[in-house]
Specification:
The protein has 122 residues and is of the alpha+beta class. 43% of the residues lie in helices and 19% in strands.
Length: 122
Protein backbone atom coordinates (compact mmCIF):
# COMPACT_ATOMS: atom_id res chain seq x y z
CA UNK A 1 0.00 0.00 0.00
CA UNK A 2 1.26 3.46 -0.91
CA UNK A 3 2.07 5.50 2.20
CA UNK A 4 0.26 8.55 0.84
CA UNK A 5 -3.27 7.14 0.80
CA UNK A 6 -6.04 6.87 3.37
CA UNK A 7 -8.00 3.77 2.30
CA UNK A 8 -11.70 3.26 2.96
CA UNK A 9 -10.92 0.25 5.14
CA UNK A 10 -9.41 2.69 7.66
CA UNK A 11 -12.53 4.87 7.84
CA UNK A 12 -15.69 4.59 9.90
CA UNK A 13 -18.69 4.92 7.64
CA UNK A 14 -21.73 3.39 9.32
CA UNK A 15 -23.80 5.32 11.81
CA UNK A 16 -23.96 2.25 14.06
CA UNK A 17 -20.16 2.24 14.39
CA UNK A 18 -20.19 5.92 15.35
CA UNK A 19 -22.98 5.30 17.92
CA UNK A 20 -21.12 2.35 19.48
CA UNK A 21 -17.97 4.44 19.78
CA UNK A 22 -19.86 7.32 21.38
CA UNK A 23 -21.76 5.07 23.79
CA UNK A 24 -19.08 2.55 24.74
CA UNK A 25 -15.85 4.41 24.05
CA UNK A 26 -13.49 6.44 26.15
CA UNK A 27 -13.88 10.21 25.78
CA UNK A 28 -11.03 12.74 25.88
CA UNK A 29 -11.54 16.46 25.31
CA UNK A 30 -8.93 18.94 24.16
CA UNK A 31 -8.92 22.56 23.08
CA UNK A 32 -9.98 21.92 19.47
CA UNK A 33 -10.92 18.22 19.43
CA UNK A 34 -12.99 15.68 21.32
CA UNK A 35 -11.75 12.12 20.89
CA UNK A 36 -13.75 8.92 21.38
CA UNK A 37 -11.84 5.62 21.33
CA UNK A 38 -13.27 2.09 21.45
CA UNK A 39 -11.82 -1.38 20.69
CA UNK A 40 -13.40 -2.73 17.49
CA UNK A 41 -12.17 -6.33 17.29
CA UNK A 42 -11.31 -5.87 13.60
CA UNK A 43 -7.56 -5.53 14.09
CA UNK A 44 -7.33 -2.23 12.23
CA UNK A 45 -7.44 1.36 13.41
CA UNK A 46 -10.41 3.15 11.86
CA UNK A 47 -11.07 6.89 11.89
CA UNK A 48 -14.42 8.66 11.91
CA UNK A 49 -14.79 12.43 11.72
CA UNK A 50 -17.73 14.56 12.82
CA UNK A 51 -17.62 18.16 11.68
CA UNK A 52 -20.86 20.05 12.30
CA UNK A 53 -22.16 23.25 10.73
CA UNK A 54 -21.12 25.15 13.86
CA UNK A 55 -17.55 24.87 12.56
CA UNK A 56 -18.31 27.01 9.51
CA UNK A 57 -19.34 26.87 5.89
CA UNK A 58 -18.82 23.76 3.73
CA UNK A 59 -15.41 24.94 2.55
CA UNK A 60 -14.16 25.30 6.14
CA UNK A 61 -15.66 21.96 7.22
CA UNK A 62 -14.08 20.12 4.30
CA UNK A 63 -10.72 21.79 4.92
CA UNK A 64 -10.88 20.71 8.57
CA UNK A 65 -11.68 17.11 7.52
CA UNK A 66 -8.76 17.01 5.11
CA UNK A 67 -6.42 18.37 7.77
CA UNK A 68 -7.54 15.83 10.36
CA UNK A 69 -7.26 12.90 7.96
CA UNK A 70 -3.74 13.97 7.07
CA UNK A 71 -2.74 14.41 10.72
CA UNK A 72 -4.15 10.98 11.49
CA UNK A 73 -2.47 9.36 8.49
CA UNK A 74 0.95 10.90 9.15
CA UNK A 75 1.19 11.00 12.95
CA UNK A 76 -1.69 9.67 15.01
CA UNK A 77 -1.89 6.19 13.47
CA UNK A 78 1.78 5.52 14.30
CA UNK A 79 1.28 6.75 17.87
CA UNK A 80 -1.71 4.46 18.36
CA UNK A 81 0.18 1.49 16.92
CA UNK A 82 3.22 2.19 19.13
CA UNK A 83 0.97 2.22 22.21
CA UNK A 84 -0.69 -1.05 21.18
CA UNK A 85 -4.05 0.51 20.32
CA UNK A 86 -4.46 -1.53 17.13
CA UNK A 87 -8.00 -2.75 16.60
CA UNK A 88 -9.66 0.51 17.65
CA UNK A 89 -12.23 2.90 16.32
CA UNK A 90 -11.36 6.58 16.78
CA UNK A 91 -14.03 9.24 16.33
CA UNK A 92 -12.90 12.86 16.31
CA UNK A 93 -15.36 15.72 16.84
CA UNK A 94 -14.22 19.25 16.10
CA UNK A 95 -15.05 21.94 18.61
CA UNK A 96 -16.00 25.49 17.74
CA UNK A 97 -12.93 27.52 16.88
CA UNK A 98 -11.14 24.56 15.31
CA UNK A 99 -11.67 25.86 11.77
CA UNK A 100 -9.51 28.87 12.60
CA UNK A 101 -6.76 26.71 14.09
CA UNK A 102 -3.69 25.91 12.05
CA UNK A 103 -2.50 22.44 11.16
CA UNK A 104 0.19 22.59 13.85
CA UNK A 105 -2.37 23.53 16.54
CA UNK A 106 -4.67 20.67 15.54
CA UNK A 107 -1.76 18.26 15.39
CA UNK A 108 -0.52 19.31 18.84
CA UNK A 109 -4.01 18.93 20.31
CA UNK A 110 -4.40 15.49 18.71
CA UNK A 111 -0.99 14.47 20.08
CA UNK A 112 -1.83 15.65 23.61
CA UNK A 113 -5.06 13.63 23.57
CA UNK A 114 -3.26 10.51 22.35
CA UNK A 115 -0.63 10.87 25.07
CA UNK A 116 -3.41 11.13 27.66
CA UNK A 117 -5.02 8.06 26.14
CA UNK A 118 -1.74 6.16 26.52
CA UNK A 119 -1.49 7.13 30.20
CA UNK A 120 -4.85 5.63 31.10
CA UNK A 121 -5.22 1.91 31.69
CA UNK A 122 -6.90 -0.04 28.88
Amino acid sequence: MNGEVFPRSHRLARRSDFRKTYDEGRKLAGRYLVLFVRPNGAGTIRLGLTVTKRIGCAVERNRARRRLREIFRREARATLERNRWTGTDVVVNLREGAAGAGVRDLSDDFGRLLRRLGERPA
